[in-house]
Amino acid sequence: MRRPARPGFFGLCTVMAALATSGCALRQTTSAKTYVLDPMPGASATAAPKPVSLVGVLKVIVPGWVDRPQITSRTATGEVVTDEYARWGEPIERGMQRVLAENLAILVPDRRFITAPFPPGDEPGLRVAVIVSEMARQADGSVVLESRWAVLAARGGTLVQSRSRQRTTPSIPGASGSVLGMNETLAGLSREIAEALKNLPVEGQ
Fold first, then answer.
1. C-alpha to C-alpha distance for 63 and 68, rounded to whole angstroms
2. How many Cβ atoms sit within 10 Å of the Cβ of residue 128?
3. Neighbours of 171 (CB within 10 A)
4. For the chain, which terminal residue's Cβ has fewer other Cβ atoms within 10 angstroms, N or C?
């Protein structure tokens, strides 16, 4: 009775080489990059007046296709494309809320801005609410931010409300350019809200 043939030396070498190559391929797999939104450049701290009024920025509401870990974009047919290798370092609605508050603090230095949930003892006299309907890079390379925003009184009531459409075309391709464009459109939205706040009376704290 003949025994089954064992793999020869060269056969074993071939198997080991294949495994080694496979291991290298696994180690070279592209890893996801992480991004966060950034505020606009800040003004000189020494020139800023002392804040005399408190404004709260509420949680930003975004559509479900934007509220995900991956950075999304749009095709010419409206398809939502997710980039598995470009992810947010924080929830996108939280990042937008943070950047809006930081931008507004730069643009309206006579008021102090805090984000919801508000700390105990801090009751903002005014509150900023933003609902986003579109925030993504488009098929033509531009980044579009469409939203509705309002300035609310502390005890209810809308003081100012408006629709906003911000568009910019970053020169950088890929996810980095998308994030840069989002920063620029958020800066534009912040300027609109800042102008409304400047026209409202300042409440002493």
1. 10
2. 27
3. 8
4. N
Give the amino acid at 32: A
**Residues 72-119 pLDDT 10s:** 999 999 899 999 999 999 999 999 999 999 999 999 999 999 999 998
142-189 pLDDT per residue, tens: 999 999 999 999 888 999 999 999 999 999 999 999 999 999 999 999
- Token pair for residue 20? 């080694």
Strands 158-168 and 143-153, by their bridges, are antiparallel
Highest CATH level, class, for 32-198? alpha beta
Query: For the packed helices 174-198 and 92-107, what is the interaxial angle rounded to 10 degrees?
Result: 50
Q: What angle do CA 30, 34, 36 make, to 5 degrees?
A: 160
**CB proximity list for 59: less than 8 A, separation 6 or greater:** 93, 94, 97, 116
Cite the DSSP H helix spans in the chain.
9-27, 92-107, 174-198
Contact, 159 vs 153, CB < 8 A? Answer: yes
Q: Is the CB of residue 97 less than 8 Å from the CB of residue 78? A: no
